[in-house]
Specification:
154 residues, alpha/beta, 5-stranded parallel sheet, two-stranded antiparallel sheet, 7 strands, 43% helix, 18% strand, globular
Length: 154
């Protein structure tokens, strides 16, 4: 299986990627909807996970693109703090809410229309988030954000 994940936060992409890799799902990540659409058009994916709100972009646009170009056969999941707007529910197979809970993501994927695809077994003890693993990525991301803020202030 292969998944496309989209979030403007590298940390969120890293966490989702780790969870999916535990399930033996190959992952391609993108930081923007524009990049994700380009990637989706050039490769085959079994599922897509997208944030709903990105800077100047909407995950709804990606969901509609995936739905129309796969004839609804590639499930799309939202990964956001927000619920899916009612008018877009038909384009999504479910939602992962932030902050992410590994067990909830694993259970939703197992219960969705991915159940016909083999997913690796993950023991409950493996679903705990190891924050130490993400500290370096968080520090790098925070330093970049700080540099961006300082640049804008100047």
């Amino acid at each position: 299986m292969k998944a496309l994940i989209v979030d403007d936060s590298p940390i969120n992409n890293l966490i989702l990627k780790d969870i999916l890799l535990e399930l033996n799902i190959d992952v391609v990540s993108a930081l923007s909807i524009c990049d994700a659409i380009s990637i989706f058009n050039s490769e085959h994916f079994d599922l897509v996970i997208t944030d709903l709100t990105l800077p100047n972009e909407s995950g709804y646009d990606l969901a509609m693109h995936v739905f129309s170009n796969s004839l609804g056969k590639v499930p799309v999941f939202s990964s956001s703090v927000d619920s899916i707007e009612n008018s877009y529910l038909d384009f999504f197979s479910g939602s992962f809410f932030k902050p992410f809970c590994r067990q909830e993501i694993i259970e939703l994927l197992r219960s969705s229309n991915l159940k016909s695809m083999p997913l690796a077994d993950v023991r409950a003890s493996q679903t705990q988030l190891n924050t130490e693993k993400y500290i370096e990525a968080l520090i790098i991301s925070t330093n970049k954000d700080l540099e961006d803020v300082q640049s804008h202030v100047q």
